[in-house]
Design goal:
- This protein is an all-alpha fold.
- About 40% of the residues lie in helices and about 0% in strands.
- The protein contains 5 helices and no strands.
- About 10% of the residues are buried.
Length: about 80
């Protein structure tokens, strides 16, 4: 059976890879529930605009980062893996 590789949202330096994302991806990036992510986005209906299909554009993602702040990036190593299980 094929092994599914987790999505890569951050580069090796810990910077967010800016590209079009779906709501589920944005929720994972900001480490919140999808419902919370939608509630945050509903605070800016005019500025954020509508998504293109299932994806939010690069401009919309950049707008969310400006409004919600940069997501916190933490590297989980083998030594501290047990804390996050």
């Amino acid at each position: 059976m094929a092994k599914h590789e987790p999505k890569k949202y951050f580069d090796e330096k810990g910077k967010l890879i800016i590209k079009p994302y779906r709501i589920i991806d944005l929720a994972a990036i900001f480490d919140v529930n999808r419902k919370t992510m939608r509630r945050w986005m509903n605070n800016f209906p005019g500025e954020l605009g509508k998504r293109d299909g299932k994806y939010f554009s690069i401009n919309q993602v950049e707008f969310m980062i400006a409004q919600f702040g940069l997501p916190d990036f933490r590297i989980i190593t083998n030594s501290n893996y047990e804390k996050y299980r």
